[in-house]
Design goal:
The chain has 619 residues and is an alpha+beta fold. Helix content is 30%, strand content 20%. Keywords: Signal. It comes from Gigaspora margarita. InterPro entries: ClpP/crotonase-like_dom_sf (IPR029045), S41A_metabolite_peptidase (IPR052766).
Length: 619
C-alpha cells in the first residue's frame, strides 16, 4: 500500500554506529528525566532538563558529512521536485527558490556545537521548501514536545486581526481574552512570523498561519513544538473585556510518552536506544496524544449544538451529520486505523444514511486532514463523482538512480517495492506497460533551468478502479447529489490525499470551495496544500534497493550513519486536468469563498458548517 500523506512514523535499518557519547554524569539532563519518570511516574519535564539532554550529544563531523552524503544522494536520485524547487513561486504563494543540493553541501563547511544544532539546521533547510511531504528528522530530537498550557485562535474585530486565547488549562478566566503582545512584540506579528519561518506544510502563508494556531496540525504549531524554544519561558500580554492589560508568564514544559521514557536512563542509553537504535523504537511523539492531553475539542469530537444529528462516525476518520436542512461529511483522514472492506462498507452506509434524511445539499469538511491512502482517494472520488475519471496523471523524474531502480524492478518484480510500476498504466492509452522503455519514455523538460528526463505519464490501473467500483456496488442507487449540490470547506490544511480529493472535485466537477481563516490582508486562501505525489521514507528506499540487490551499487545512496535519522519526500509529480502541463504542487488554488473564525464558530463547528452551506450554489 502506498502512502500519500504526512505520517510521523520512523523506520530503521541496522548499520554500524559511528559515535557514542562519553558516559554522562549522574546529574545530566537525560539522567534527571529518567529519575523523575521512575521516582514520580512523571511524563512532564522541565525545559532545562530536556535542553541539557538534547545538547549532551556533541557534534561529530564524520557523522555530519556522511549524513549530507546520504541526503544529497537520496535527493539527487529520487526527489521529484529537485529542479522545480529552484523556481520562484506563483502569485499567492510564499517561499524562496532553493537549490537543495547546493545548500546541503554548504553544511559540509559548517561547524556546530552539538548534534542537535546540526540536525535542526538541516531540518530548517528542508522546511524552507514549504513542501509538506519533504522533511528531515531524527528520532533523537522528536522525543519531547514543549507547551505552555495556552492555545490560541484569530478573529477579525472592527477590521483588525487579533489573537485570542482558545484555552488555558491553568487559568480558564483567560479564555477568549485578547493576546496583544508576546514577549513584548505585537502578538499577530509574532504568530505571522512564526508561520512564515517555522511552519512548512503549505506554500500559502495564510494556510501556514492557520496551522501555527491549530492543534490538529501534527508537526509544528506556535503553542506546541518539538524544537527547544529560544528561552525557558514566554510572556503573554492579555486584555480581557477591555479591562487593564496584564502579563501572564509561562514556563515551557516538555512532555513525552512511556514508549520513549522506558528506553533510557542517561545520555548514553538515550543515544544508543533512541538516536541510534539497533532495533526500531516507537514512532516519535504522536500529536493525537498531545491533543488528548489538552482535551482538545477538534476533529470528530467537536462541540455541536442541538440542531446537529449524528448519522454515523466511521473509525474516527469520517463523520456524517445532518444540520438543519443540509448534510455534512467530515473527512478527518484518509488513513483510518484499519482499512479493509468493512471500512469501505461503513463509509458507504454513512452516505446512504445521510441520503435517507433527504438533505439536498452537502458540505464536505476537509479541514485538518493531512492525507492517507491512495485507495481512499479513488474510493471517495468514484463514490462522490461516478461520472468523471477519479485520478490525475503523474510522472517521475528519471535520474540515473531512478532509471536503474525501475529497470531492475521491472526485471525482478519484487514485492512491496516502491519502484514497482505494475500498479499503473500509460495515462494516454490506459494500457499496461510492456517494457521498461515504455515507462521511462523520452521526455526532456526544463525545470529550474535544468534539463532532465521524465517518464511517460502514468495513471491508476483499470484493475484498481474496477476493484473499488465493485466495493461501491452495495449502493442500490447512486448518491442523490450532483456536483453543484456540494461544497468543500477547509482551513487549507487539506494535504496530500485530501488535496487530491479536493482538487479532483474542483477540476473534474467544478465543485465550490470555501476556505476559512488565514491572514485577512491576503485576499485569497488556498483550499488545499501539498498535493505533491507519492511520499516515501528514506528507509523504504533502502529496503526497496536492498530487494533489488542495489544497496552496494556506487550510484545509490548509503544508509544514514545514525539509524534514528529519516527523510521523507515525493518520488513523483502530479499534473492538473484543466492545464495538463501544470504541476499541482506548485499551482496556487484559491477557494471561491472566504470565511473567518469568530468567538462562536471557532468553538461550535456547526455554525461554520451553516455559513459554508449557505454558499452552496452561489458560484
Amino acid at each position: 500500500m502506498k502512502f500519500y500523506g504526512v505520517f510521523f512514523i520512523f523506520l530503521f535499518v541496522n548499520v554500524q554506529s559511528y559515535i557514542i557519547p562519553q558516559e554522562a554524569p549522574a546529574n545530566s539532563g537525560c539522567a534527571r528525566i529518567h529519575h523523575e519518570f521512575i521516582t514520580k511516574q512523571r511524563t512532564n519535564f522541565s525545559y532545562i532538563d530536556v535542553k541539557d539532554c538534547y545538547e549532551s550529544f556533541p557534534f561529530d563531523k564524520d557523522v555530519a558529512s556522511k549524513t549530507i552524503d546520504t541526503l544529497t544522494d537520496l535527493i539527487g536520485g529520487f526527489y521529484s521536485f529537485l529542479d522545480k524547487a529552484k523556481e520562484p513561486p506563483q502569485p499567492g504563494f510564499d517561499f524562496r527558490p532553493i537549490d537543495l543540493i547546493a545548500e546541503l553541501n554548504v553544511f559540509r563547511k559548517k561547524s556546530f556545537n552539538t548534534l542537535y544544532d546540526f540536525t535542526t539546521g538541516v531540518k530548517h533547510l528542508f522546511n524552507e521548501l514549504k513542501d509538506g511531504h519533504a522533511d528531515f528528522n531524527s528520532n533523537c530530537f522528536t522525543t519531547f514536545a514543549f507547551y505552555t498550557n495556552m492555545t490560541f485562535y484569530s478573529v477579525i474585530n472592527n477590521g483588525k486581526q487579533k489573537i485570542k486565547v482558545f484555552d488555558d488549562t491553568i487559568d480558564q478566566s483567560n479564555i477568549d481574552c485578547e493576546v496583544t503582545h508576546i514577549d513584548g512584540q505585537q502578538a499577530f506579528q509574532v504568530i505571522s512570523e512564526y508561520a512564515k519561518n517555522s511552519v512548512y506544510a503549505s506554500r500559502d502563508l495564510g494556510v501556514r498561519f492557520n496551522m501555527a494556531l491549530d492543534l490538529s496540525y501534527k508537526e509544528i504549531s506556535f503553542a506546541i513544538r518539538y524544537e527547544i524554544p529560544e528561552k525557558p519561558d514566554i510572556t503573554y500580554t492579555l486584555e480581557c473585556n477591555n479591562a487593564k492589560k496584564f502579563d501572564v508568564k509561562r514556563n515551557w514544559v516538555a512532555f513525552s510518552n512511556h514508549a520513549f521514557l522506558n528506553n533510557f536512563n542517561d545520555s548514553k542509553t538515550y543515544f544508543d536506544n533512541i538516536c541510534n537504535p539497533i532495533q526500531p523504537v516507537s514512532s516519535n511523539l504522536n500529536f493525537r496524544e498531545i491533543t488528548n492531553i489538552f482535551n482538545n475539542a477538534n476533529g470528530l469530537l467537536i462541540e455541536r449544538d442541538q440542531s446537529v444529528t449524528t448519522i454515523g462516525i466511521v473509525d474516527d476518520s469520517v463523520g456524517f451529520f445532518k444540520v438543519e436542512d443540509f448534510g455534512v461529511v467530515k473527512i478527518l483522514t484518509e488513513a483510518p486505523a484499519v482499512l479493509n472492506d468493512a471500512t469501505f462498507e461503513n463509509i458507504i452506509q454513512g452516505f446512504k444514511g445521510l441520503a435517507k434524511t433527504g438533505v439536498k445539499k452537502v458540505v464536505l469538511d476537509l479541514s485538518d486532514n493531512g492525507g492517507g491512502y491512495p485507495t481512499l482517494i479513488l474510493f471517495f472520488n468514484i463514490l462522490l463523482f461516478p461520472n468523471t475519471y477519479p485520478s490525475f496523471d503523474f510522472d517521475i523524474r528519471i535520474s540515473e538512480q531512478m532509471k536503474l531502480a525501475i529497470t531492475e524492478q521491472f526485471k525482478l518484480a519484487t514485492l512491496d517495492n516502491i519502484f514497482d510500476m505494475s500498479d499503473y498504466v500509460n495515462a494516454k492509452t490506459h494500457s499496461n506497460f510492456t517494457s521498461v522503455d515504455d515507462i521511462l519514455g523520452n521526455n526532456v523538460y526544463t525545470r529550474g533551468g535544468v534539463k532532465e528526463n521524465y517518464s511517460n505519464k502514468l495513471a491508476a490501473s483499470d484493475f484498481d478502479l474496477n476493484e473499488i467500483s465493485q466495493l461501491i456496488q452495495s449502493l442500490t442507487t447512486p448518491l442523490p447529489w450532483k456536483p453543484e449540490d456540494y461544497n468543500i470547506l477547509t482551513n487549507g490544511y487539506c494535504g496530500s490525499a485530501c488535496a487530491f480529493i479536493a482538487q479532483h472535485a474542483v477540476e473534474f466537477n467544478n465543485v465550490t470551495t470555501v476556505a476559512v481563516g488565514g491572514i485577512a490582508s491576503n485576499p485569497s486562501l488556498s483550499y488545499s496544500s501539498f498535493p505533491g505525489g507519492e511520499m516515501v521514507y528514506s528507509n523504504q528506499i533502502f529496503d526497496s534497493l536492498g530487494k533489488l540487490g542495489l544497496l552496494n551499487n556506487t550510484l545509490m545512496p548509503k544508509p544514514f550513519p545514525l539509524t534514528g535519522t529519516n527523510v521523507t519526500f515525493t518520488i513523483n509529480e502530479v499534473y492538473g486536468k484543466i492545464n495538463p502541463d501544470e504541476i499541482l504542487e506548485f499551482a496556487f488554488r484559491p477557494a471561491n469563498f472566504r470565511l473567518f473564525y469568530d468567538e462562536q464558530n471557532i468553538r461550535n463547528i456547526s455554525i461554520l458548517w451553516s455559513q459554508a452551506a449557505a454558499l452552496i450554489g452561489s458560484k
